[in-house]
Specification:
42% helix; flat
Length: 513
């Protein structure tokens, strides 16, 4: 095996089983045949992972086979060697995780409605399914996957030993494929990989409208795959194809126009080069120490910490034998400007403001909501676009979850399960930037001065549920909007009532006489 192929086998084995159309030679390494989409997807996935070793292996051993001119041959990672210090900036994954925080920063709320009224019982059922699957975290991970991979898929399955509710699983782009007909999604095929006795298997779960089918494939020695019985593996032995009457697919797939990494991979590479060169210059710019030989007695130096050289003794009459330090200049300003510019270009391309990802935090923690909104104008626009895409997707998928829950009611398969056609799910994302107490007071004061609201409503707007009714009554009393009850008047009225009762009793007794 050639040295280049030996190096390449490391990245090949890592990517397996994410790459389709591959085969493994027994006793040899996995040979990869990448088409354009597969090559680009694996490239983006490695940038998301951010491993310098894997990136260097990828670019130096796996060349794209879909272009005539290979511009990636000039990338930093295509030319680095083991003697060059390489540092990954971490910006790609920072962008992806920031997208997830941006959308999910406000509280996600959802209700199940029947016509124009909330169906509280069904809403509670959906919340139980949501909490059981920890969907809050699953949605965040899905946003991250969508950011680098442009797409993701969710699969609904059931296992009574794990949960009484439908189980939702996230699949990365490498682990599934969608089948369309005239632009409409018809099937989602999920790939699951197994290994037994040195043999590799792939289970294909095909989720269609009203059915789920299973097929198990084994990779043989010559690199081809053959269909084998499900009983070949213990994990798949009990799987059976199922069908139901409703033409509903208990899976979901989401795809956006472009990945956040599309078009800026080269800038990621340039950023890593700038970072690495800056760090390398800092290392090379350590002070150089020159030590006369006569001064080395009982002295040792760590060459990694101190770059030193031994000089001969100066035996001249006027000679001076002393340790000399020389400190080179470090061009941090030039590198810093390059790093800032590349980072800014990347963030502009993905629609994020630096403050959103934690860069340039000069704005104070007590800044008003209006100031924060101005500082993150681009991010807020991006969040609005994400909400427009995510709300319909979640509403449709949550409805599918309710159907799946009815389909496997208490673990019993109900082929004729059907949901009320009048049911609908409403999903909304909370505010990203919440107004401060100061903002609320100013806005409420303007409404009060304009006689839009009264004092009691103003207190509700500012404090909400933070104060009790007793505290609210006390505040209103102090403001002069209500007065404390006059107990003397109440006592006088009570006395009058008692006198009247006595008079009535006397009259009744006189009549009886």
């Amino acid at each position: 095996m050639k040295l280049k192929d030996k190096i390449g086998s490391g990245i090949s084995n890592f990517l397996y089983p994410y790459i389709q159309n591959e085969y493994r030679m027994k006793g040899d390494y996995m040979k990869i045949s990448m088409n354009r989409d597969q090559y680009l997807l694996n490239e983006k996935y490695l940038w998301f992972l951010g491993s310098e070793d894997l990136l260097a292996d990828f670019y130096q051993t796996r060349k794209s086979d879909y272009s005539v001119i290979d511009t990636r041959s000039e990338y930093y990672y295509s030319n680095v060697g083991s003697n060059v210090r390489v540092i990954h900036s971490g910006l790609p994954s920072l962008i992806s995780y920031s997208k997830a925080r941006l959308l999910m920063s406000g509280e996600l709320e959802f209700t199940v409605n029947k016509k124009d009224k909330e169906d509280k019982k069904t809403t509670e059922t959906l919340k139980l399914i949501y909490d059981d699957n920890k969907l809050d975290g699953l949605i965040k991970n899905s946003i991250v996957t969508e950011s680098w991979g442009k797409q993701f898929a969710w699969k609904i399955s059931f296992d009574k030993d794990i949960s009484e509710y439908p189980i939702v699983e996230l699949y990365k782009p490498q682990d599934y494929k969608c089948n369309y007909k005239k632009g409409r999604l018809q099937e989602v095929v999920f790939f699951n990989y197994y290994e037994k006795n040195g043999n590799d298997y792939r289970l294909e779960e095909t989720y269609g409208k009203g059915y789920i089918t299973y097929e198990l494939y084994q990779y043989n020695k010559d690199g081809n795959e053959i269909l084998v019985p499900l009983t070949e593996l213990e994990d798949t032995a009990e799987l059976e194809d199922i069908t139901w009457n409703e033409k509903t697919m208990i899976a979901g797939a989401k795809e956006i126009v472009k990945s956040d990494y599309d078009g800026i991979i080269s800038e990621f590479d340039a950023l890593d080069e700038a970072w690495s060169q800056l760090m390398d210059e800092i290392r090379l710019a350590r002070s150089e120490v020159y030590v006369p030989e006569m001064l080395l007695t009982n002295r040792t130096f760590n060459k990694f910490r101190k770059n030193y050289a031994v000089l001969g003794n100066d035996e001249r009459e006027t000679g001076e034998n002393k340790v000399t330090h020389i400190q080179p200049n470090i061009r941090t300003d030039e590198y810093g400007k390059a790093i800032d510019k590349i980072t800014s270009n990347c963030l502009v391309d993905v629609g994020l403001d630096p403050f959103t990802v934690g860069i340039d935090s000069g704005i104070g923690a007590n800044a008003s909501g209006d100031q924060l909104a101005k500082r993150e104008a681009s991010s807020l626009r991006t969040r609005g676009e994400m909400i427009d895409e995510w709300e319909p997707f979640l509403e449709e998928f949550f409805f599918t979850l309710l159907f799946a829950n009815a389909l496997f009611n208490n673990g019993n398969f109900n082929r004729t399960a059907k949901l009320d056609e009048n049911l609908s799910v409403n999903v909304s994302f909370g505010d990203y930037i919440s107004p401060t107490r100061k903002d609320l007071i100013e806005e409420t004061k303007m409404m009060k001065d304009a006689d839009i609201i009264d004092t009691e409503k103003a207190i509700d707007e500012i404090f909400g549920d933070e104060i009790t009714e007793e505290e609210k009554t006390r505040i209103l009393a102090n403001l002069g909007n209500i007065t404390e009850p006059d107990t003397s008047i109440i006592d006088e009225e009570d006395n009058n009532l008692e006198n009247n009762k006595d008079s009535d009793n006397n009259s009744t007794q006189d009549q009886k006489k």
